[in-house]
Amino acid sequence: MSSLHSLLKGGRIKKSRPTSTTASQSTSPRKTNSNRKPSPKKPAQKHHDSDEEDFFQDHLDDRGLVATLATDLSLRDVPQAMAYALSRMFSPVPERASGLSSTRIASVLSRRRDMPPIVTTGHVHAVLQASPAAVEREVAHLEAQGALRRIRVRGRRFGEALIAAAEYERLVKDSEALDEAAKEAFLRFLAENPRAAVVVRGAVGGGQRAEDALIRAGFLTGRGAWGTGGVGDASRDAPRGLRYAAGGASAVSRRRSGSGKLPSVETVARAPSGSVQAVGGPGAVYAAGGGGGGGGAGLARLADSAAESELDYVLAVPGHGFFLKLVSAAVEHLTELLGKSRFGEMPESLLRERWDGGIARDEARLARRARGEWAGVLPGRTRKWKEFYGLRFAWVLEEAMGAGLVEVFETGSVGRGVRKL
Fold this sequence. Notes:
By secondary structure, the chain is mainly α. The protein is 44% helix and 8% strand.
């Protein structure tokens, strides 16, 4: 009874805690082992929320190459292709939320105004559906009629350009660096020599003063900017004596050194059918190392004439140098964008977005931008406007395709694709 009474006296049964040594072991391991280094945390893997990386895991489907990039299927001849290219060279300046200061806008518009009205021959090939041989025949025909002029700069990928004869004459008339006497003499020379690419000293008229004024104005340049000899060069547009003189010195040197070779098939194929250039050009036999009939003495005399012809001038267009720098830099940037992909190819829509600087074009963001709200990257912060003065993506793509640096093909699923060559 006493034991039962003692149990009920507390009113509550209490369990005795078991004594164990696990309590000391349940403490934090950091307290018991202070020398233990904490395990490094694994860096969180970056999550790519963009689907553009999926395009680069495999080759795009190739359903066939695109022959022409022109969206206007009514283009039929070279003058139309030139007008088409000139009208689509630049994008319009954004009116609101552009990120361009007034000073920058003025600089962009000034550069555009000073751009010469020239089109590279590769650009014409890229927008016309005709074959390259047909385009070259048409260009040669327009040159013979005096409706077109071909301007060349040696050693540049985009150095061969076309300009309408009327536009070239307009540049001469509007030039402030020329006096009336020099303008009249030069225009007279252009009318009398519709296919001339080389200007012999004293042929323009007006004396050395007029020629110096034309050089300062940018309408004439030294012979070093023009290829000397060779098929497909401007020597075919020179007078007959100058043609042989231009090729004579190089032919003699090749024969003496034993390094003569035939013209390239690519150059001959571009020549108009039935012309002298289609069979190798003047003196092709001697240029390849052949001879006979006292040709050695004749070529020696032509070598002396070639040395004298180095003092002649070549037709040029004011602003052609800036045009070459701009086009070369733009095409190089386009190919660099393609080179960042795994296989050097990507859909045209994605390449266009990267050229524009990743500017979003969905309706919601465009509406926010129209209200003056910030939405993504401003156009003025992109290379398209900071370095290239707003060159259109389609225009640069046509230049790259005409130069043989890229090719455009149909994918059948994501539109057209662009591949770097």
